[in-house]
Amino acid sequence: MNETVRLVARRELTERIHERSFLISTGITLAIVVVVLVLPALLGFGGPNEYTVALAKIVDLRSGENPHQLAAFYAESSARPRPPARTRGTSR
């Protein structure tokens, strides 16, 4: 009987420790989210709400499953990377 009480008490203490550590880690995570996301927006350090990005069409593409649907590969117009390599079996 004494062994049973000891095992039940140990399990209860373990559950309380896990619950408390979960609450502490959740609180820390919430504080980090508030500091990183909410606080800068409230203080006006959020930056602009809109960005303009200049893109240039590099190559026309077609889908393998739906070749009738058009697609294209775009990149920033300041950087002209090589188009993606075609894989074997891709139709033009």
How does this model look, in words?
- With 92 residues, this protein is α+β, with helices and mostly antiparallel strands.
- Helices cover 46% and strands 16% of the residues.
- It is built from one helix and two strands, in the order αββ.
- The chain has one helix at residues 2-43, and strands at 55-62, 70-76.
- The termini are far apart.
- The model has no long low-confidence stretch (mean pLDDT 82).
What is the CA-atom radius of gyration, in angstroms? 28 Å
Helix content: 40-55%
Low-confidence stretches: none
Shape: elongated
Structural class per helix/strand content?
alpha+beta
Distance between the termini: 78 Å
User: Within the largest sheet, what's the order of strands?
Assistant: 1-2
Q: Please provide the count of β strands.
A: 2
Query: If you average the pLDDT, what whole number results?
Result: 82
The biggest beta sheet reads: 2 strands, antiparallel
The arrangement of helices and strands along the chain is HEE
Strand content: 15-25%
Number of helices: 1
